[in-house]
Every structure is written in C-alpha cells, then in structure tokens.
Amino acid sequence: MPVLARLRDRLGDGALRGRRLAVVVHLEAKTACLVLALQEAGATVVAAGSNPLSTQDAVVAALAERGVEVHARHGVSQEEFTADLLRVAESGAELVIDDGLELTRRMAEHRPDLYAQLRGVSEETTTGVARLRALEAEGLLGFPAVAANDARCKHLFDNVYGTGQTTLTAILALTNVLAAGRGFCIVGYGWVGRGLAKAAHGLGGRITIVEIDPVRALTAHMDGHNVAPLARALEDADVVITATGLVEALDASSFAHLQDGVLLANAGHHDREIDVPALAAQADETIEARANVTTYVLGDRRVHVLAGGALVNIAGLDGNPIEIMDLSFSVQALSIHTLASGELPAGVNEFPAELDDLIARTKLETLGIELDEPTEVQERFRSAWMV
Amino acid sequence: MPVLARLRDRLGDGALRGRRLAVVVHLEAKTACLVLALQEAGATVVAAGSNPLSTQDAVVAALAERGVEVHARHGVSQEEFTADLLRVAESGAELVIDDGLELTRRMAEHRPDLYAQLRGVSEETTTGVARLRALEAEGLLGFPAVAANDARCKHLFDNVYGTGQTTLTAILALTNVLAAGRGFCIVGYGWVGRGLAKAAHGLGGRITIVEIDPVRALTAHMDGHNVAPLARALEDADVVITATGLVEALDASSFAHLQDGVLLANAGHHDREIDVPALAAQADETIEARANVTTYVLGDRRVHVLAGGALVNIAGLDGNPIEIMDLSFSVQALSIHTLASGELPAGVNEFPAELDDLIARTKLETLGIELDEPTEVQERFRSAWMV
Amino acid sequence: MPVLARLRDRLGDGALRGRRLAVVVHLEAKTACLVLALQEAGATVVAAGSNPLSTQDAVVAALAERGVEVHARHGVSQEEFTADLLRVAESGAELVIDDGLELTRRMAEHRPDLYAQLRGVSEETTTGVARLRALEAEGLLGFPAVAANDARCKHLFDNVYGTGQTTLTAILALTNVLAAGRGFCIVGYGWVGRGLAKAAHGLGGRITIVEIDPVRALTAHMDGHNVAPLARALEDADVVITATGLVEALDASSFAHLQDGVLLANAGHHDREIDVPALAAQADETIEARANVTTYVLGDRRVHVLAGGALVNIAGLDGNPIEIMDLSFSVQALSIHTLASGELPAGVNEFPAELDDLIARTKLETLGIELDEPTEVQERFRSAWMV
Amino acid sequence: MPVLARLRDRLGDGALRGRRLAVVVHLEAKTACLVLALQEAGATVVAAGSNPLSTQDAVVAALAERGVEVHARHGVSQEEFTADLLRVAESGAELVIDDGLELTRRMAEHRPDLYAQLRGVSEETTTGVARLRALEAEGLLGFPAVAANDARCKHLFDNVYGTGQTTLTAILALTNVLAAGRGFCIVGYGWVGRGLAKAAHGLGGRITIVEIDPVRALTAHMDGHNVAPLARALEDADVVITATGLVEALDASSFAHLQDGVLLANAGHHDREIDVPALAAQADETIEARANVTTYVLGDRRVHVLAGGALVNIAGLDGNPIEIMDLSFSVQALSIHTLASGELPAGVNEFPAELDDLIARTKLETLGIELDEPTEVQERFRSAWMV
After folding, report:
1. Distance between CA atoms of C186 and C266, rounded to whole angstroms?
2. With contacts defined as CB-CB under 8 Å, which chain C residues touch B169?
3. B349-358 pLDDT, tens per residue?
4. Confidence band (pLDDT; 50, 70, 90) for B383?
5. Which of A99, A150, B206, C103 is the most exposed place for a label (fewest CB within 10 A)?
C-alpha cells in the first residue's frame, strides 16, 4: 500500500499516540495493513469483523499474533456477533473506524454509557453514513463523525471500480458462466451499481437497472441501460446483483419472478440485501451445489445464491484489489487521525477536501502521472467574479 | 419540451405573474420555449444572449415578433455586448436567469443601483456558479441565488450527454475527420469533459486528459484514459477540446506544442478557453478554410480553430438536443419560480432536491419508464440507525 | 490522400497508360482524388454516379473542368440514370470501377456487345459482389472481376468505422436528437451494421438488431445487443437504420409497426432499403419538415425519413472521412491496376493479400505506427507442421 | 450443453457407429460432454490431453471410469506426453479431433504407417489449422481434414468471448489486481487478442497491441488502442498477455524490457508463447509466490508468470464457459460426423456453412431469440444480378 506508506509521517505525528481505536471492517488480508499502520502511529487497536460471513479466521489469527486484540469468528450467529462487538466496546475504544455503523449503533443501543465516551467515528459505507445521519437527526450524535464513504478518494474508486470489478470477477470465477449476452439485473444504480453495470456491460452483458430514485433511473437510461421495476426486470434476468445499501432488495415477494437457473449475488449492505432465510423457507430443497453456490429448488425452478448472500467479492473471492484499499484505508487513516486531533465539531462531517486531494496526489505520484497547475490568469479568474 | 409542458400548472400558479425577468442564455432556437413558458406563466421577459458568437439573429427576430424585448446581435464586440446587457438591466429586471453570470456581474460592476434591486438569480453554468460563490465570499450577495447548474437534472445530463454528443458531432460534421484511432486531448475532466471523453472514446478515439485536480485526474486514469500535462498531451493530439470552465485553457504559451493539422474546439466557458487573439498574433497567415473553420499558419504547422473558439456545438451546429434542454430549462423555470416565491434565503442555494426529483419523475413518465418504490421495510431501514 | 499518393509510382508503371476506365461511384468531393490519380497514371477516365441522390452537381462540374467525361446529374429519374450509365458504356470503357454493379449489370442487360468487351471490373460494395457472384453462377462472367469490397483494407475500415461514424453523425446533425437512451433498431449486422451498432452504443444508444443470418444474430447477442424480429424491434425503436445490402429492408408491410416520431435512415444499398414510395402511398400527408427530413403522416403517427432514403451519410452530410476513402480508393486503384496488368483469371477474384498488406503498411507509415516482424523462430514455426 | 444435446439425433444416425475416434483436447471437465456424446453416437473414443499443464487428473479418472481409454497425466514431460499420444495412435484411431495438431503431427513424424490409415482430422485451433496447411503444402495431407477453428460458430465465440472473458477473469482471480487504469500489453490481435482487448478495456484497462500483421495493427488502432513494437510496449505494461498462435512471443531477448512487477500470462498456443525456461535461466531467483503465480527475480525487477505459461484460463481457472464449449464441441462433433460420412475430399476443408448455420440456429432457439426470414423480394434480389 504505497499511498498509506507515504502518509506514515503525517499519521505518526503524535495525534494517535496512546489513543484506543476500534477497527470494525471486513477482516480479510488487506485489513491488516490498516491495523498495523495505526499501531505504528502509536494507537492501540482492537478489531472485529463487520459481518460474520466475511470474516476470515486466518486473518484473525494473524492479527492476534501481531498483538492486536481481535473479537471475531467466521460464520457466527447474530447474537455472537453482537457479543463480540460489545467486547470491543468494553475494551475502552474512544475512536472507531466502523462499517455499516455496526459497532457504533450497538453501543448506542446496548451500552449508552460507553457510547457517551466516544470521541469520533469514521464510517466506511453508504449505509453507515445514512445511519449516522439518522442518529444526528434524533439528536444522538454528540461527537464528531466523518462520512469517510463520501470522500471522493473512497466512493469514486472503491465503490465504482473496486466493487464493480471484483463482484463481477467473483461471480464469473465461482460459476464460470459467460457474461456475453447474459441478462444482468442490477438492483440499485448508486456508485456500486454503476460500477457493476459498467463492468458487466464491458464483457457483453445486457443490463437492466432497478431503481427507486428518479434521477438515478434517468441516468441509467441515458447510459444506455434498460430500466424496469423489479418484478419485470427479474423475468428476463440471468444474474441478479443487489447494490442498494438497504435491506431486502430481493424480498420474499420477489422470488416468484425469478427465472429458472438465475444466479443471485450481493454487492451491497452486508448479507442483508437478499432475504436468504425467506428463500430457504420457500424452497422445496436446498443443495450445496459447489463451494459458495447454494441452490434452492422452487418447484421446477432452480435459484443459485452465491456466497450465502454475503458480499460476493469478499466472501467468495479476495475482496477489493489492494490498490483500491490503499486509497480507502488512506481515507480511513487520515479520517481517524483528524478525529483524534480534535478539530472537528460534533455531528456528521465531510472528509476534508484537502486530505482527499493529498491522497489523490500521492496516488498519482506512485503512478508517475503528472498534473498541470492552474496559470496565474486562471487562479485570478477562479477566485473573482469580475474578470 | 414535454417536461416543461407538464410543469405548466405549477409555473402558472401566480408566483411569476407580473414579475420582470431577464433571461440571458444562448439565443438559439430552443431558448424560445423557455422564454415563452415564462411569459405564459405571467412574467414579463427581457432577453439577451450570453455570448455574441452563439447568438442567432433569426431567433432574436422571432422572439421580438412574439413581443419579447431582446437586446442581442450576433458577432458584436465586447463593448456592444456589455451595452446590450446593461440595457437589459435598465429594463427593470428583478429576477435573472443567467449564464456565466454575464448579466449579474456586469450589474454589480456597472450598475450597483440596479444590482441592489435584484430579488434572485438562477445560474446555468459551472463558471457562473463559481462567480456567485466569489460574490458571496466578498459579502456582495444580498439576494438569493440558485446554483441551477448543480441541479442533478442539469449537470448530469446537459453537461455529460448533451454537450458530450453535440460537441463531438459538431466537430465531425464541420470537418468530416475520422474519430477512430484519432488522438483527442480533452482539457478538463469535469462533467463536460467526461461526457466528451465517453463520446469520443465510443467512436474509437484515443483519449488523453489534462487536469489540475488530482481526484479528477485519477478518475480519468481509472476510466482507462491517458493523463498527461498539457504540453506533453498536445504533442500527440489530433483534436484538442477545452472544457475547463476557466479561461485560456490553451494560452499563448501552449501553441508551440501543437501538432501540424490539429483541430481546436471549445466546449467550456463561452469563447474564452482558447486564446484565439494570441494565436492570431503568432500566426504567419490566417485562412478562412471553410464555414466555421479558421486555419492559422504557424511556420510549417497549420492549426484549425472551429467556430472561432466559441462553443462549437452552439456556434457550429444546433446546440444541445431538445430533450436535454427540456430538462435544463425545466430546472431554470422551477428555479426562477422558487426565487419568485420568495422562499429562499440570501446567498447561494442548492436547487431543491424535491424539484430535481419532480423533473426526473416527469421525464421518466414521458419515456414510459417505471420506478419501484421502497418497501415499508426499506423505508423503516432508511430512516433508522437501529434496524 | 497520403496513402494513394504514396502508391503513385506503382500506379504509374505503365499498366494503366492509355486504358479507358469507367468510374461509377458516389460523385462527392473525395471521388475526384481517385479519378485524378487514375488520370495521372495515364488512363482515360469516364465517370458517372452510382445513385442519382448521392450525386453532387458541383463535383460533376469540377471533374468536367479537369477534362473528365462525366455523365451524371443529381436527382434524375431511374430512366435518365440508366441512360447516363449507357453513355458511359458507349464511351468504350474496358475496365470498370463499379458500385452496386450499377454499370456492369446494365451493360450485361442492355448492351451485351459492349459487355463482351470488358476486361475487368472492380466492385466496391457487398451488394455488387453478390451480383458478381450471381453473374458468375450463371456463366456470364467471362472476364476477371475483383471483389474490392472484400479487401480487408476496404470493408474492415470503410464499412465499420467510416459508415458507422458518418451515418450516425449525419442522423444527429440533421435532426439534433439525443443518442443517449434512444432506441436504435439496426436492420442487418454485417460490417456496416456492426459499425453502426458500435457507434450508436458508444453514445448511449440502446441497440436492437434484426437479422436473417443466425451466426450474425448470435454475434449481436454476444455483443450485448438485443436481437428481435423486425416487427417487434420496430415497436420500441426511436431510430431505424437499414444496413442489409438488400432491398426493401423496410417494406410496405413493416410501416404498421413504426412508432410515432420514429426516424428512418439508410446506410445500406443505395436508396432501395426503405420502400419510400410505398410509405408515401400509405401516408395521409407528406411534409418537407426541414432540409433532408421528410415527414410522412400515417394517422396519428409521424414518420421522418432522412435524405429521401438515400445513403444518409453521403446524401445528408459529407460521406466517409477522407482517411477512410484514402484506404478504399487505394484498394480500387490497385485493384484496377491489377486488372489492367492482365494477371487475373476470369471470374470473381479476391483482392490480392499482398496488396492489402501494402496498403495497410503504407497507412501505418503515415500514422507513424511501427510493426514488429516475426522472429526467425516464429517464421520457421509458421511454415512447418513438425516444430 | 443444450445445443450438443439437440444434435444427438443427427450424430446418432449411424455414421459414427463403430468408428474409432481419438479426441485430443484439453482434458478439463467440459470435455467429458463431447467424449460421451461421441460414445453415445456409437463411436469408440480414445482420449488424451493436448498439453500436460492443462490436463486435470480428476477428469482423466472420471473418463476412465466411464470406460474411455485415456492416456494423459498432468504435468508430465514432453517425452512422456509424446509417448501418451503415440499410445493413442496405436489404439487404431482413424478419425481425430485434434488441438494444435498435437496427435496428427506426431503420427506423421513418428508413425507414418498409422498416419497413412487416417480417414479424417478435425482441428480446434488457429495454430493447428496452420499446421494442416503446412502438411498440405508439402503434399502430405492424403485424407480430408476440417478447419474446425475457422467455423464461425467456433472462432467468433470461443476465441473472442470465451477466451477473452476467462483469460481476464483468471488473471484477476489469481492476482486480485485492479484492471482499471492498468496497462495491458496484448501480443497478437487475432480473434483471441481482440476478445482480450475488449474485455480488459471494458474494465478500464489501457490497451497496447503488438502485431506483425499490418491490417490487424491498423484495426487495433481504429479500435482506439495503442499500437507499438514489443520492446516499446513492454516498457509501459503492467500485464502482458500473449495470443499469437505462434511460439516465443515473449522470447529471451524481450525480458530486458519488462517492468518491475509485471504479470505475464498466456492465452495463445499451449505453453509455448512465453519462453519460461529462458526466463528461469535469466533469473537470480525463482519463487512460488502463490498458487499459479511464479515470481522470477531479475536484478531489481520481479516478473510474475501465471500458470507456468500454460493457457491461464484453463490451467489457472475453469477454462471456457460451458455455453461456449457447447458451440465449439457442437462444431467438433458435426465436423467429425461429416468426416465419418466420407463426403469430404482430401485436403483442408472448411466447416460446411449449413452446419454452422444449424448450430447457430439451435443456439438461438435455446436462447429464445427469433430470426427474421428474407422476404420473397429479397430472396429474388439476393440471387439475381439484374434486379
């Protein structure tokens, strides 16, 4: 992670020294880089996974070996997952890197005492940022938070190119189906959805977008995709990918519209976008067809769910490329560093624009790409109304 | 303009009745629709062009015939242009639909007395919004303004698809060069620049992006384009298109890097992005090669400037498609209606999100495209932090 | 035309000296280059247009001024067109560059005496090559012909990139409709059709392909396009483009399926793919809406035909880019040179592969693009079965 | 394989009954379908792999269990591989489905007696077809052969979409690098190369093509790719993929131009396009970095070879999608059936066009896609020269 490496001096300036941080993100190999960079900057890090299905036990073990306190295990129940997160809370974390706000919201709910001691939260996902805003709207956000997801160096790259590529690659690698000519139904045309559409389209897929937001629907139309309501879209879909950031994007009422042989995969909010329990309840039979592919038999139709409905790129392959996580984790590291510096007011804050620029500039340097600078004439023009 | 037509009832609710509006936009055929819709809503409209090179005298005449006061003529000097705009100011306009803030900034500079009487300005372009913010930063914005350009229904469609397509079409129709394999240098990777890149790339062009913003440069790189500083980019460019929203994107110092036979076209801020006077001054000879193509001979190199450096899609062809202007002008009409209603505070305001949604929904209706609605479960999830 | 220019020595080696050539191609500006290159090589050229709607009278006049015998006039009737072609035949032409076999087939039909004296025909189009093969199948091809259309340097570039780009540009320039999100129905997925699909798709169009050939239909599907029978495809089409190389791709029975507001344009065989007379006969009213746009009113639907159903890129704009015609006419020039050299047997011949390579190499040189050469190991491998 | 299944009646018409067939193709899971379909048609099949690195021992075992005689083992030496193929020859095969002509050329070389008894060979690859033509040129092809690779239903789909997608997926799945913005050097712009370019480009890759054929180089240029000689192309390449159909596309002299960190993968002729032994000889150190990734240290540069230089999509993942192999193996099955029927003359034959059409039609039926039929007017036009 060359970008994160070049930020080392700034991270190590003392602001993080001795601070207790909780890092609650998908526990896959690349996460170790973030944790170790924060440790090196002087923080004490306690870690947990953000979803039991994406937790890799080997990574947990490796972090533990390096002296990191970790509370996570692959595939545990929701109760055990909550218990693990509360253990993280009890460890005295005052600053949190969160994903889906999984830790923070549980602290607010179950441990208001510890929640009251939080000094800052930096949130990784679209869903988590929405939850931060809901907390704020209810007057419950008494500390500064950063919408790290909304940093340009995060969502423009991680959500679009990273998740777009790896979700598609994971689906193709797990099933070896042909993308060319295949009908892809993508539910949600946010940053992730449009990355997915672009990737699937680039391999010859025929794309149909399902949306609830009118501007996004219109954008999808202008991008040359079909746009249809879910029920109609499913009737021509060979692959369905959820990317709404909400829950139950494919709910119990939708399964009647699925075609025989359809593949279902999730690229959105943890494992909650496909209602797999409802699907299992409707099924006549459930077959573990191959690794990470479960087949549900509904009458004469077979529906294949990838990676149990968890994020297919993380649970089914290796997550985002390291080049992407270098950007995303640089955002998180600088975000938590800014929170630790105590400069931000309570409430949801944007990630500071100059840090976004710094990360992008550093990345361009590592790529050997040069920028131009505005001329004096342009500088003057930019800041004046009269020229 | 079916979207604007469906908004007629809302526009005609009385808020605009008897108000004096100035409309300062490119005076090409479609502009008449906006002017007439505002008249029909009860307003008295005075019009002028936003740039002398894009003004079409036939449109001026047609508007005048319909009883609109117009102060504009194609190809006049900057002095005459300013004089025309001041005539508009003197007509008593209290609300302004502006483009590049050409009217508003002249009022602030030359007629502070009339400027003080303004009740609202709605601005069409990236450049104009920057100027509004400069006015605000200097404490000079005592009335409400709307950044209409930043409406999703404006910049996401007009700047990307409209200007992208029509700029490329204009260049190809004026010169009949082959896009496939051609080297396109696009200066600026904002909404316009990325629409241009997408369009040129779709016809087989090889794209190089020049940027001063690191995140945009990185985005261009991830979109598969080359990224280089201007001087280097020009050395391999067959076509150069400026789209910075600034001035002198191609300035006197850049011409030394141009290849023989290069085409220069502008899709950015009025006619100010290519320093044509400086180019003329460097040239050994100037040849009007064909309609809208001027050739400058610099030693053994020939440089062809399209449409005199004005917006090539407007000055060289028919501007944006009517479907696009239907969206953009619906934004402007609702924006000025909102300003007329007196609901907005002084300063730069965003275009109201619910109006953006209304326009997009109306457009989808005219296209026969259906949206889904969030389920109750999703609604609950969206507004809660605990679910 | 730098490629054609670099072939001058070869063309001028004497083989064409004193020979009488007929050149029957679209008489637009670039055609003059071919005619003059052949004259310079020593031939006597007699010219005519290949379709009355694409003939430009200014080009006819310019050629006549240069001493070329021309028999053509824009917009004449079929009878006059045939009479013009027979005048060309009577001029004593022994070698023909033909387009759609318009001259050759009329000679075979009306002047078998002159047809018997032909020494070679080089054919420009898919349709004309099919007609050559039909002549051959009937035992009527007693002289050598070259399927110039099938040269790689012709159909791979002219049909795909040239016609693809210029047809789309012509449609957009004539009508200023938005391509993004628009439904394009392309009838025929040969080289032209796939160039069109690629171009329209690159600007955000949604593509539906109509085919009668199963492999092409499957290719269109794998390229991510919709594939449907004509009647169904028309029901969702905003723009219909014919590119079959046949006749009546849109015939009288198809018009019932057209949507209100649809645009019809032809990129295929002369002006015969849209049955405009049948459409006019069905129409309640015919309106010349604007230059090159005729509107037919069928009940409550309006159907707009571009360029009278002639090749929209030639009749409605400037034809193919000069870079493309440089390749295509280099093929034609070398083809007729080869025929003049008397080396080819009677019947339909392929364009010699080494000449195709020569043209491509020459073009690459003008572009400054370098090729690799096979290594000795590779050369040995290529020609052996045992390595 | 629904297409192959629907051809069962035709295959089982008796022509294959009792015939001895050798099937020498990559022994991966899908191959079993072909072998069993041929058995079901009454043939006795003896099988071997076409390259030791792509042979999957589990598939060998499965075929053996079904009573197929198989001579193959993963990873054996060239000597053992040849010995296995000669065992196949000795089994009395009279008809061969070959790949790279691996069996046929060894029979010609080592067992001319058995070679003389061959009654037909159907060849799967570009390389193998070239070898067939070399045999024919030397007067050594005394029996009919079919260039199955050149069937439209084979190379247009298998080479383009199948190998394009799966090669890219394999590279991304094995290494998890980001495609967006990455420099891909593709050596060879035949059907495989252009499928690769399209796939990598669709995920945001920057493409440079290396070619020795001028028309292909020009096509790559017009498709918007960079074109450069190998040495220059390697200097900016992050990923190099060979797809020439030749040998030593990356030979000992090329390694000096490789960048640090580059990935090398092969999609072309067996494991012979990257000269891995030469690379190993130049390396200071060789590291098995992870499964299917070998790192060669050359001074301060690290070069990563995927799948040992074998076909990365087969040796590193699951080969082509089953939908693709359904088409390719339908070609092979009908090809060998035609050869068994004894209808073809000695020499290299094209795959019969009507069988190509049959396969495509059958595939379209399984997809529910409808074709149009030519009208009577069109039929007449197509077969006449006078209409």
Report:
1. 10
2. 169, 172-173
3. 999 999 999 9
4. confident
5. A150
C123 φ/ψ angles, rounded to the nearest 5 degrees: -110, 135
- Number of folded domains that form chain A: 2
Q: According to the model, what pLDDT value does residue A386 have?
A: 84
Chains that touch B (3 or more CB pairs under 8 A): A, C, D
- For the cut 80, the answer to whether the pLDDT of residue B387 exceeds it is no
CA D180/CA A165 separation, integer angstroms: 8
Q: Enumerate chain A positions whose Cβ falls within 8 A of a Cβ in C.
A: 180-181, 201, 204-206, 221-226
Q: Quick check: is A206 in a domain?
A: yes
Residue of D nearest to B221 (CA): D181
Q: Does A326 share its domain with A345?
A: yes
Sheet holding A285-290, edge to edge: A226-227, A206-210, A183-187, A239-242, A263-266, A301-306, A293-298, A285-290
Q: How confident is the model at residue C386 (pLDDT cuts 50, 70, 90)?
A: confident
Q: Does a structural domain hold residue D338? A: yes
Parts of chain D with a pLDDT under 50: none
Nearest chain D residue to C222, by CA: D161
Chain D residues with CB within 8 Å of chain A CB: 161-162, 164-166, 169-170, 172-173, 176-181, 198-199, 201-204, 317-319, 321-324, 367
Contact B370 A131 (CB under 8 A): no
Cβ separation of B132 and A363 shorter than 8 Å? no
Please check whether residues D136 and D182 belong to one and the same domain.
no
Which residue in A160, A213, A372 is closest to B212 by CB distance? A372
CATH number of the domain residue B177 falls in: 3.40.50.720
Full domain range(s) for residue B263: 161-315
Look up the ipTM and state it: 0.95
Smallest CA-to-CA distance from D156 within D122, D201, D188, D126 is with D126
E strand or H helix that includes residue A305 = strand A301-306
Q: Which residues of B touch C177 (CB under 8 A)?
A: 321-323
Provide the pLDDT for residue B250. Answer: 98
Name the closest residue on chain B to residue D178, using Cα atoms: B222
Q: Enumerate the residues of chain A whose CB falls inside 8 A of the CB of residue B130.
A: 382
A vs B: CB pairs below 8 A: 160
Q: Which positions in chain B have a beta carbon within 8 angstroms of at least one beta carbon in chain C?
A: 161-162, 164-166, 169-170, 172-173, 176-181, 198-199, 201-204, 317-319, 321-324, 367
CB–CB contact C228 D378 (8 Å): no
Q: Does residue D352 share a domain with residue D209?
A: no
Domain end residue (candidates: C315, C334, C358): C315
Residues A183 and A277 in one domain: yes
Whether residues B117 and B199 fall in one domain? no
Query: CB–CB of D221 and C384 under 8 A?
Result: no
Does residue C247 sit in the same domain as residue C340?
Answer: no
pLDDT grade, residue A387 (50/70/90)? confident
Among D315, D343, D378, residue at a domain's last position: D315
Residue D213: C-alpha distances to residues C293, C357, C358 (Å)? 43, 8, 11
D321 and A178: CB-CB below 8 Å?
A: yes
Going C38 to C39 to C42 to C47, the CA torsion angle's sign is: positive
Helix-, strand-, coil-residue percentages of chain A, each rounded to 5: 45, 15, 35
Q: Are D358 and D338 in contact (CB under 8 A)?
A: no
CATH number at residue B148: 3.40.50.1480
Is the whole-model pTM more than 0.90?
yes
Give the count of beta carbons closer than 10 Å to the beta carbon of residue C112.
10
Same domain as B147, residue B19: yes
Nearest one of A182, A176, A174 to A202, comparing CA atoms: A182
User: Is B377 part of any domain?
Assistant: no
The answer to whether residues B297 and B339 belong to one domain is no
Instruction: For residue B24, list its beta bridge partners.
Output: B48
Q: Say if A372 falls within a structural domain.
A: no
Q: Which residues in chain C have their CB less than 8 angstroms from residue D109's CB?
A: 386
